[in-house]
Design brief:
With about 375 residues, this protein is an alpha/beta fold. About 35% of the residues lie in helices and about 20% in strands.
């Protein structure tokens, strides 16, 4: 019974993307910033090969590596969660999704007003924590929605839960998803509820409404061949539910990994696909190096627990979808290469797989492992690790 555990450490890049300067991100290095803090303690990831990846200089390479490892370039023209996950699942996005550095056009705002019956505040690129500080009081007084974006292809709606009940906010975001199609087809609509008194605090009831991938992914191919796809964290949202058959929504990294440990004790044949978003959502955008580093340390402990539960035919992949260097300037994602760590009892040990041209090679390798013909836009490296 073959099982694949595919863990995406959201935003944990390792610098060095050849086109980083084109995105304004020259010199960014998420893992490098964490190692420079002096607080990094991730022995399990290092045993899988993290410190041995080509082009890294965080710390001395290890000789006792038990995994296979490589660095991966992103082919898609983006540096966001949606495009990154779509590519790793087999679909390169040759054109960037639309972004709005000057805010959304009036035609979009008017449709939002008509759909929600509320006025609009902000309409600018903004930090999610700062926007509720600057516009939260006016929102509470007037009931107008805080609509904002970022450097990514997103439309975000923030509202106080006492002013806009959470289910109503979700309805507004669903309506916004219907509006934002075609030329305005942003990658995600994001509900950003907050609570309390000023300065307000965001709640954990965030919800993402993504575009469906426009082409087939490895998830579709696995489902068509009778394998199960289990999503943990934001996976269901990222793929708009397409071919995700069992879903456990985001509860934070620790709770998500506890769920994965439970799943590892169960019998299934197929893919368990996990997104751990705290590094990005809570610590990366806030440029909080100590907390980002501690989140990786905490994950590493649970990673060790997971490897102890793996069965003979299990394949483990640990990777990332983009960067969000907590030691860099600004608050946005950073264009970086990502690590790919591969481990399993039946696979080779200590193999340097070099540098791969696309995240899509992971999806192709997973399909190859399950014996299905799908390769998407990637090339399988299964023959290099068995």
């Amino acid at each position: 019974m073959k099982r694949v555990f595919w863990i995406v450490l959201d935003s944990v890049g390792l610098g060095g993307a050849p086109d980083a300067a084109d995105f304004g991100d020259a010199g960014s290095d998420t893992l490098g910033s964490c190692y420079k803090s002096g607080k990094m303690n991730v022995p399990n990831m290092e045993r899988l090969g993290l410190a041995n990846i080509d082009g890294t200089s965080f710390c001395a390479p290890r000789e006792d590596v038990v995994g296979c490892y490589c660095r991966m370039h992103e082919k898609s023209l983006g540096k966001d969660t949606t495009v990154g996950h779509w590519e790793m699942a087999g679909m390169v996005s040759p054109a960037p999704l639309p972004t709005y550095p000057n805010g959304f056009p009036e035609e979009v705002l008017q449709k939002l007003r008509e759909a929600t019956g509320r006025e609009i505040l902000c309409n600018l690129p903004y930090s999610g924590t700062e926007v509720i500080k600057d516009y939260g009081e006016e929102h509470v007084k007037t009931g107008a929605l805080i609509v904002y974006t970022s450097a990514d292809s997103v439309l975000q709606i923030a509202a106080h839960e006492d002013v806009v009940p959470i289910e109503q906010l979700y309805e507004y975001c669903h309506a916004a998803r219907e509006i934002m199609q075609g030329e305005h087809g942003v990658g995600r609509i994001i509900a950003r509820p907050f609570e309390g008194e000023w300065p307000y605090q965001r709640t954990v009831r965030r919800h993402d409404y993504s575009l469906q991938p426009p082409r087939e992914t490895v998830l579709d191919a696995l489902k068509a061949e009778g394998f199960v796809n289990i999503g943990v964290g934001k996976i269901y949202d990222i793929f708009a539910g397409k071919s995700v058959m069992v879903s456990y929504p985001n509860k934070g990294n620790t709770a998500n990994m506890e769920r994965v440990l439970d799943i590892a004790d169960s019998d299934f044949e197929g893919l368990c696909y996990i997104n751990l978003v705290d590094t990005d959502m809570i610590y990366g955008h806030r440029r909080d190096v100590p907390a980002y580093t501690q989140a990786l340390n905490d994950f590493d402990v649970q990673l060790g627990q997971l490897t102890e539960k793996l069965r003979a035919d299990d394949l483990l992949i640990v990777t990332a979808d983009h960067g969000c260097d907590p030691g860099y300037t600004g608050t946005d994602h950073t264009r970086e290469d990502v690590p790919c760590l591969v481990y399993g009892e039946k696979f080779k040990k200590g193999i340097n797989l070099g540098t791969k041209d696309s995240f899509a090679d992971m999806g192709a390798t997973i399909a190859d492992y399950f014996g299905i013909s799908y390769r998407g836009d990637g090339a399988s490296f299964l023959s290099e690790i068995v």
